[in-house]
Structure formats: C-alpha cells, structure tokens
Amino acid sequence: MLFLEREMARQIAFVLPMFSDHSRPDAIKLNFRCPICGDSKKDKYKSRGWFHEHKGHVWYGCFNCNVNMSLVNFMKNYREEMYKEFLKEKFRDSEPSKPTKPVEPTRKLVTQAELEKKFSLDRCDLVKRCDLLPLEHPVIKWMTGRVIPRDKHYLFYFTGAWKELTNTVKPDTYRNVEPEYRLVIPIYNADGSFSCMQGRALGNVDKNQRYLTVKPDDDVNKLYGLERIDPTKTVYYFEGPIDSVFIPNSLAIVGGAMAIQDAPFKEKRVWVLDNEPRSKDTIERLEKLIRAGERVVVWLDCPWADQKDINDMILKSGATAELIQQYLVENTCSGLSAQRRLSEWRKLNEPQKRKHDRVDHSASLRWSGTAEV
C-alpha cells in the first residue's frame, strides 16, 4: 500500500510548479507550490506544499493554508481521476494472487542506462560550459565574486532555461517552462557518465529553492566529484559541491542524505561538516559520525571561526585553499579525541549571557547559558 501511495504522490507532484525532491532512501518528501491555496500571490518562488510520510502512509500538508490530510483524501477531494486509479490499483493488489501479467507502472521513469545513452550536457543546447563563456558574462562575474577558481569553471554550466533542461532529464517535471537562470552543477558516476544535476539559483529566491536537485530516479549516484577521486589518497566529504572544489580529492553529497555504510572510501574518508557550532543538526550529525568510528574535522581553534563554510572563509576572511587544507590535515580526529574536541567546540561557541553583568559571580556563570544549538 505504501509503495502505491508513493507512486501516486510522485505522479501528482512531478507536474506541480516549483517541484523539488527531498526524499530519503526510506521515505519520500516532495515539495511544490500548494495546489489548494496557490501559495503566495506576491512571491512566485514560494513553495510550501509537501507530500511526506507518517506512520506508514503518505500525507499532504501546506505551511501556508495549514491543510493537513492523507494522500487518499487529497486525491479524493482534488485529484478525482488519480483517486479512481488508486482505488483500481488497490483493489487489484487485494485480490488473491493468480498467474497474471505484471502490472506496468502508470508512469514510465527514465532509467539511468537510458539517460546515459541519450543525454550529455556537452551535447545539450540549453547549457554552456562556464570555462567557454566570456569574462564579462553575468555567471562568470558571479563565480568570480564567489572566488571560484578559474581553473575549476569547466566543472560548471550555465543555463537560462532551467525548467526546460529539467524536463529533459526528468520529463514532465514542469508544466510551464518560462526562462530561469541557474548555475548547473553536474553529478557524474565514477566512470564519468552523467548521473544527475543540481541547479544553483543566481537571483534572490527562497532558501529552499536556492539549490534544486534533479534526479531521473532515486537510485542514481548523489556524490559530486566522484569521477575525480584518487582512492589512494584522503577523501574529504563536504556538505556542498562549491566548497568541495577548493580542496583536492573531495566529494559532496547532493539531493538528500546518505547512510554512512553506503559512503565509499571507508578507509580514506574524512567528514567535513559546516562550521555551525550552534546548529543542533550539525552537532547531532557529528556525534553520530564519531560514534560510528568515522574520522571528522571539528572546527576548534579555527582562524576563520566567524564563517560557516570554506567558500565564505576564503571570500570573507582571507583564507586560502592551501591554508584550509593544512588545517583539515592537522585537525582530523576520531574516537575520544573527536569527542573531546566536539565538547570544547560547543562550549567555546556558547553565547555568554549577561555579558555586561558586573556581579562578582560572573565567572561562575561563564558557561551557564544554554547553547543555541
């Protein structure tokens, strides 16, 4: 039943405006503009409708109109044809098994093999590789402003037709294909064949629309930089593709989480999460990695502690890629050492409450404030 609900939810979500897929391997999570309230009339980039899973079923919820209902009720009220199809499939599944022909999926997905045969960014007229663009091109000015090295520009593409490009990789994602400018970040398999892609917005958009990942199916590789990895050297795992291009032999996970046991290069990998000591999510993920025996970098005594990621450390704090790489080498840790560094990192970054208080007991209150994590 859950499999059928997931399939129906995907069919509905694929064609809704501002669709993006945030699913995990074990649960779907689909975002789009709410088809009930229409989301914001002032901001066309708002997308607050979600399909998500709860207690073994798919539910629909909107953070704008506060609608909350099961997928079944959503289809019954707003997608009558889909509801009828759902009932037929449900009835067919409940019948006693007998030798019949397998039921074909209601939607034909593009398989990875098919995509590799027919799709290549270098053969696509909707994009242009960034190292081939003139210096005065707006996207080159944007990349230069982000201090992305010129010798790394060949790793990125520019498109003024993001939605049309998305429909090429994942058909019927967008119904309306009006122009949209994005930096295209391609993700390749280890052999260099195309896997999926991510688009980075170049204008002002909602935070959840800044990076959009397009996957032809859920089983594709989600590791950016895999085709450039030397497995005999240390492999750094970063949170974002742009950060990863500054440090040699680095990867970034895009389009959702990855189980630790599924990450390649077990003996060589080092996890480099963002420098966010007040983020509860970052702290919890670091704790999980340390408990699993993984090697991590904790940004303790970091010379660029006021910035959260490598790009900002270079852009805003004057760091160099070489200095950051040296810091990573010298501050990689695991086990008890990592636990100690994580504990110190959290304490050093707790906000000191009542900083202006002149009471003699101020020293005893130094670490008494609750950490904003």
Task: Describe the structure in your own words.
Helices cover 29% and strands 17% of the residues. It folds into three domains: 2-94, no CATH class; 111-217, DNA primase DNAg catalytic core, N-terminal domain; 222-373, Dna Topoisomerase Vi A Subunit, Chain: A, domain 2. α1 (2-14) runs antiparallel to α3 (80-94), α2 (71-78) packs across α3 and α8 (280-291) runs antiparallel to α11. The protein has helices at 2-14, 71-78, 80-94, 112-118, 138-145, 162-169, 241-244, 280-291, 310-317, 321-330, 335-348; strands at residues 20-21, 29-32, 49-54, 57-62, 68-70, 127-129, 157-159, 182-188, 194-201, 211-214, 223-224, 235-238, 250-253, 269-271, 296-297, 332-333. The protein is built from eleven helices and 16 strands. By secondary structure, the chain is of the alpha+beta class. A five-stranded antiparallel β-sheet has the order 1-2-3-4-5. It has a five-stranded antiparallel β-sheet with strand order 6-7-8-9-10.
Kindly state the mean pLDDT as a whole number? 84
- How many helices? The count is 11
Structural category: alpha+beta
| Structural domain tally | 3
Percent of residues in helices: 25-40%
CATH class term of the largest domain: Alpha Beta
Listing every helix as H and every strand as E from the N terminus to the C terminus, the arrangement reads HEEEEEHHHEHEHEEEEEHEEHEHHEH
Percent strand equals 15-25%
Low-confidence stretches: 97-110, 352-373
> What is the 3D shape?
globular
